[in-house]
Amino acid sequence: MSTLPHDSAHNHVRGLSEFIDDRPALRGEVFVEVLFSRQAHARIRDIELGRALKHPGVLGIYTAKDFHHNLWGTIFKDQPLLADQEVNFVGEAIALIAAETRDSARVARSLIRVAYEALPAILSIDQAKAAQSFIAGSRKIERGNVETALKSAPHQLQGNIIIRGADHFYLESQAAIAYPKEDGQIEVHSSSQHPTETQHVVAHGLGLPYRDVVCIVKRMGGGFGGKESQAAPIAAYAALVAQKLNRPARLILTKDDDMIMTGKRNPFENQYRVGFDDEGKIVALDVELFSDGGAYADLSTSIMERAMLHSDNAYFIPHMRVVGQVCRTHYHPHTAFRGFGGPKGVATIERIIEEIAHALGKDPLEIRKLNCYTAIGGRDITHYGQKVENNCLPELFERLETSSQYKARRARIQKQNAKALSGSSRLLRGISLTAVKFGISFTTRFLNQANALVIIHRDGSVQVSTGATEMGQGVNARISELVAQELGISRDEVRMMATATDKNANTSPTAASSGTDLNGAAAVLAVRKIKARLSELAIQVLKIPESRWARHTAGLGTEPEIEVSIEGFEKDKVNDPNADAIWETGIASYHGVTFKDGMVLCPNLDDPSNPKQVSFAALVNEAYHHRISLSDYAHYRIPGLSFNKLTGRGDAFMYFTQGAATSEVSVDLDTGEVKVLSVDILMDLGRPVNEALDLGQVTGAFIQGMGWVTTEKLHYNKDGALLAYSPSTYKIPSIQDTPRDFKIELLANDRNFANLRGTKAVGEPPLLLSLSVWTAIHDALKGLPEYKEHYPRMELPATQEEVLRALMPEKFARLAPSGKSSAP
């Protein structure tokens, strides 16, 4: 386990890291702007381009007819690259303006006039349900006899939860530069989490075979899922202009345009019926999930699937039915966001747990522990039939309850709140301890594969190319550490190369928290092929005098001819990154040879305590002179996944990352202001490759989740136009919002045998622990007289306005509608 810093940290803090718009402009480069719809749903009657085309510096304006194929889509090809006869959301691209300067392109855009014929727009989930406007059919996952169990349950509750969308707010907007190459080839530099899809969408749009398009991703300034699919059309726009003008083309969206044009986290409106016994143990649960997919499918059906698979979260429910339906509306096509659909399913079951506790007058933690997955009594099988292996949830609950002093703090809070309710204080406090069980791997099985190319140069330095894309999360640092540790060299000797589709083709997106799991495993498999050859070479070379080594004979042909083979790579081991490794270290060894501290050590039969040794660099040089390959490629696929999407049964995930968090908040009774006072997190991340990076990911995910559950609300007007489209109107957490008391501890767990070196993914799961903040806000309010009988019902996020509504329901009920809409 390492605590080395991010491999680009030294460049980031000095402003030297290269992002898309930092690339030097080439001679003849042109700038591209996008004209997009200002209507949610309308026919395009006419586009008047004359004035724009005459504007100085304008080189061309391109519309749908200029693409060879105009439809694209990750799952269903239902979205036009450029709208032709009809627009279906505010922000839908209509035309591309190419000009000599950015200013010229922007002015020309303002000169274009589009004549619309307004059409009825569907702007809510309720409207979509009424109109039967859906994307694909509904899905169902069911276990047991839900109706019978509900009827026989001693207690029943029913309710609903509204979960709004959220913007990714990555710092680097969507961006791409396209370069025309000889014979009609196109090279695209994109801020994309999925270079292969970007390559394919560009090729499809331009009518080129995939071989003629190369997509390169050096790094992104943030992604969070927002660049998994929606980076592809931006690259296609730049590529079209580059192809038409045979000049490099640069397209960098402004922050405002980016937020207006791109999809968000899917809003959900979920309904539930739950049956439980006198102790609070859930007997049966019936959940209906409805999401707003926006105008086109994008990834919404897969997002819904993950929501359905996480509607149990940490809890065993013997009789459970979850139905999911994606609604088609006239908003931007919503897309992947950290956690995918998981947060929506988890938020729903956590609301249900809270309501059960309130109904029974019990501490919610008591209900959580009672329903927690456990091997006792066979209560470790999910509603889709997968066993919860390596289950740490009971331990996480118990340990965090103790370490965070949950019981003592709750008793203190109850006394403080009694004073507030008597009028001696205007601050209520709340506390909540929630957990997460997050499935790791793609639920679409063919995406669970990766490939890697490893090259060792004659000086002992290493280049590694994988399909993983770096967006600040540290995937390159982790992979380089895995390779360096395997070879016994410093991480500084390993260079992670830009992700490029001409080196790593047919890759999966860097998403689902699987970047290191997939690409790290492929890189390790590739480097071990080389390591096995070097190990055999070392044994043979060290048998002969150094004076006769090939690098000393300068190619005279007097050196012994040495040949090696790859032993230890039998067919059953070729896909297992743990096959040849010592579990305690995760490092493989061949023929008893050890790679350590830049040296290669071989067994010495004559003096076992004094192994023979040669420097890594010298051995590599020797390998070159003996014509032994110093590069290799490997492919990895996750074994054992068996989830059947038609039946909703099977092993959907390789393993589960688990964690728990205790959050304490204060709520101002007069203003509704919420402050997160303290957070204690206990995460099970197996055996981390790099603990420092993992702690950073836990911190960042939780703070981002805090924004999702408290402040980040997307306001739309009644015509479907986004109003919160800039840093001044969209409220993400700032440094002042970070809890002053913020503790993170990693659970020691070396039993995750499913994954490379026993590691567990960290990117998404901690975000879901921020729901402890949301439930803590409810905890603060539920002692108010008006909530004696009924649990407080706040939307997510619980913004200051939403909290005020809960504090003063009668006053807000009297307020007239403002004419603005918060939907979706």
Can you describe this structure in just a few lines?
28% of the residues lie in helices and 24% in strands. The protein has 824 residues and is of the alpha+beta class.
Structure, explained:
The chain has 824 residues and is α+β, with helices and mostly antiparallel strands. The protein has 3 domains: 9-120 and 174-252, Aldehyde oxidase/xanthine dehydrogenase, a/b hammerhead (Aldehyde Oxidoreductase, domain 3, Alpha-Beta Complex); 268-442 and 647-821, Aldehyde Oxidoreductase, domain 4; 449-637, 2-Layer Sandwich (Aldehyde Oxidoreductase, domain 4), CATH 3.30.365.10. The protein is built from 22 helices and 31 strands. The chain has an 8-stranded mixed β-sheet with strand order 3-7-1-14-11-12-13-22, with helices on both faces. A 5-stranded mixed β-sheet has the order 9-17-16-15-10, with helices on both faces. Strands 18-27-28-30 form a 4-stranded mixed β-sheet, with helices on both faces.
Main β-sheet, in a few words? Answer: 8 strands, mixed
Number of helices: 22
For the residues shown, what is the average pLDDT?
A: 96
CATH superfamily of the largest domain: Aldehyde oxidase/xanthine dehydrogenase, molybdopterin binding domain
Overall spatial form: globular
